[in-house]
């Protein structure tokens, strides 16, 4: 989706869905990020003004993933330890939750719970397979389904459609194909436009757009799209570990994972046995 789309095409894809404005804290942080030498004190000060984001950042930095011996208690310490880009990725991912959560829609409770689970599992898997940009994997885990709450606001019966999409998914039919047939749009494309309007890195936007297109992407073994494949491999494993098919799709079987499992595991160099062990150890770690 890298090519530029016209305003008319974007309107067609969004089907009357309005993308929420980028939160001011993200605007401020991104302005600091593009400075020749970003000031970590300014970044810490900005984050400290938001109790929700501060708490989320400290929870992440003190999670088992980072394995710190001493608990981090201050935002400044967390920023110094993680560095500018990592912190901003994590905060970007967190702030979409605050912007979109609608207390009147009880359905979203399970959505946010599983988004946080998938994000922490992405972080852990990225480290285990040696992926350098673990913070980006975390951001993808939290952001990949950001189109779901927007779809639900626009289409009141959306969760029923999503359950049907998960139920009918197979090697020939993607989850988004069912959404397209019934609603003329889908949560992946809505998530893509949200991520772009919030100025997330382009390759993260591409991963969001393609997160239900994994079979096609991994079937192409030409060596192209390596960063995209790595991010999608981490996400697909994390979704399976966290049982997104059950939480979001109300399905006992993970049909999508069954169709991509062999390709994904082959791409990251894991055997079935290795992955099962990894899955158990992640659950014990508390990432899920």
Observed structural traits:
mainly alpha, 67% helix, 288 residues, 2 domains, 18 helices, Hypothetical protein af1432
Describe the structure in your own words.
This protein is an all-alpha fold and 288 residues long. The chain folds into 2 domains: 22-100, no CATH class; 104-288, Orthogonal Bundle (Hypothetical protein af1432). Helices cover 67% and strands 0% of the residues. It contains 18 helices and no strands. It has helices at residues 7-14, 24-33, 40-48, 51-61, 75-82, 84-100, 108-128, 134-143, 147-154, 158-167, 175-183, 187-197, 202-209, 214-219, 226-241, 244-247, 255-268, 272-285. Helix 5 (75-82) crosses helix 6, helix 12 (187-197) runs antiparallel to helix 13 (202-209) and helix 13 crosses helix 15. The longest helix has 21 residues, at 108-128. It is globular. The model has no long low-confidence stretch (mean pLDDT 87).
């Amino acid at each position: 989706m890298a090519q530029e789309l016209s305003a008319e095409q974007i309107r067609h894809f969004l089907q009357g869905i309005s993308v929420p404005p980028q939160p001011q804290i993200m605007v401020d942080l991104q302005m600091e990020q593009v400075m020749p030498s970003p000031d970590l004190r300014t970044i810490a000060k900005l984050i400290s003004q938001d109790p929700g984001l501060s708490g989320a950042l400290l929870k992440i930095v003190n999670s088992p993933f980072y394995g710190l011996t001493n608990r981090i208690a201050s935002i400044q310490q967390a920023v110094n330890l993680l560095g500018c880009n990592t912190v901003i990725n994590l905060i970007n991912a967190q702030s979409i939750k605050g912007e979109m959560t609608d207390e009147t829609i009880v359905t979203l409770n399970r959505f946010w719970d599983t988004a946080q689970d998938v994000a922490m599992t992405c972080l852990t898997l990225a480290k285990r397979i040696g992926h350098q940009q673990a913070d980006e994997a975390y951001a993808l885990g939290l952001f990949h389904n950001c189109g779901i709450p927007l779809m639900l606001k626009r289409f009141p019966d959306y969760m029923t459609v999503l359950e049907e999409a998960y139920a009918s998914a197979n090697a020939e039919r993607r989850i988004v194909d069912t959404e397209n047939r019934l609603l003329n749009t889908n949560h992946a494309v809505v998530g893509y436009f949200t991520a772009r309007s919030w100025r997330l890195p382009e390759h993260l936007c591409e991963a969001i757009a393609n997160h239900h297109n994994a079979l096609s992407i991994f079937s192409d073994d030409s060596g192209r799209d390596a960063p995209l494949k790595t991010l999608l491999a981490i996400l697909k494993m994390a979704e399976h570990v966290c049982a997104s098919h059950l939480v979001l799709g109300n399905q006992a079987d993970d049909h999508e994972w069954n169709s991509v499992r062999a390709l994904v595991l082959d791409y990251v160099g894991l055997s079935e046995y290795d992955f099962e062990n990894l899955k158990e150890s992640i659950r014990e770690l508390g990432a899920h």
